[in-house]
Amino acid sequence: DGTRKLLFRTTDDKMIESVLIPMDGYFTQCVSTQVGCRFGCAFCLTAQMGLARHLGAHEIVDQVYLARNVELNGWPIRNYVYMGMGEPLDNFDEVVRSCSILIDPKGLDISGRRITVSTVGVAPKIPALGHSVPVNLALSLNGTTDEQRATIMPVNRAYPLNELKKALADFPLPPRRRITIEYVMLGGFNDSTEDAERLAKLLVGLPVKVNLLPWNPFDSAQFERPDEDRVRSFQKSMLNAGFATSIRISKGLDIGAACGQLDGTPDAA
After folding, report:
1. How far apart are CA 43 and CA 122, in angstroms?
2. Is residue 37 among the annotated active site residues?
3. How many Cβ atoms are within 10 Å of 188's Cβ, its own excluded?
4. What is the residue-level pLDDT of the chain in tens, covering all 269 positions?
5. Phi and psi of 51, rounded to 5°?
6. Which of 37, 41, 99, 259 is catalytic?
7. Which of 232, 190, 180 is nearest to 42 (CA)?
8. Are 260 and 17 contacting, i.e. CB atoms less than 8 angstroms apart?
9. CA distance 51 to 105
């Protein structure tokens, strides 16, 4: 589908990945912030690596600079999402520094509106991010009760849904901008009509839009990709509840470059 996966070797011989995702006439770059990840989300291949180390701001920014050397048939790289390997808010200072460099007119002079930082829900750092740099926020939610979410995302034991919701409410948003709620749909686990109803109730009062992500499989996982009709039905429920809700089309599945499939190996790169 035109997705390009870039494999980088750091100066201390670690491997990280970044992905260039074709959109409509441009590319979005998915950037990594750590070598591995320590948060253990059950649906994510990167989590199985554990955490080797944080990336420095220069290593995050280097991914953006080096990607500009890739021939993309004349299409520009327009948007940047911190959704690659690692949990960005676990590497808070270096992530903020890297965003500042990308935004600075003496750096790459990228508008903060074109940069999105994603988190699995490190609640105390969410408002701090917005007060530090004028970027977009995405939250990987994926569960509608504390028990359900903690089953697949251990971070929920430290920062349950009520604490997370307060952090989202405290995130400073410029006018006409919204927080993106990323919801990975796992077949038979969190894709029911009841889940959609609970999700809508949970998000009431928050300035959000919802992005549904049918789970991207990898060999060692125990989940199933949801049926397409189930995904459409979930979207309809959220739309009827008044939430702008889109379905992300998985790109890069054939080269292990889709969301949740990065593990820093050269296979299919």
Report:
1. 18
2. no
3. 11
4. 889 999 999 999 999 999 999 999 999 999 999 999 999 998 888 888 999 999 999 999 999 999 999 999 999 999 999 999 999 999 999 999 999 999 999 999 999 999 999 999 999 999 999 999 999 999 999 999 999 999 999 999 999 999 999 999 999 998 889 999 999 999 999 999 999 999 999 999 999 999 999 987 766 667 888 999 999 999 999 999 999 999 987 554 454 444 544 455 555 43
5. -105, 120
6. 259
7. 190
8. no
9. 33
Candidates 109, 24, 10, 13; CA nearest to 60 is 10
* Catalytic pick among 17, 87, 94, 182: 17
- Token readout for 240 is 């009827």
Beta bridge partners of 148: none
Extract the runs of DSSP E, i.e. beta strands, from the chain: 4-9, 15-22, 27-30, 34-36, 51-54, 77-82, 115-119, 136-140, 179-185, 208-214, 245-247
Asked if 238 contacts 230 with a C-beta cutoff of 8 angstroms, the reply is no
* Whole-angstrom distance, CA of residue 215 vs CA of residue 213: 6
Q: Which residue has the tokens 């953006």?
A: 64
Long-range contacts of 232-235 (CB under 8 A, 24+ apart): 233/193, 233/196, 234/185, 234/191, 234/193, 234/195, 234/196
To the query of whether residue 163 is one of the catalytic residues in this protein, the response is no
Cβ contact 66:6 at 8 Å: yes
Name the amino acid, one letter, at 27.
Answer: F
Query: Which residue in the block uniquely carries the two structure tokens 């089953």?
Result: 151
Beta-strand ranges (E) seen in 57-135 are: 77-82, 115-119
Rounded distance, CA 28 to CA 43, Å? 23
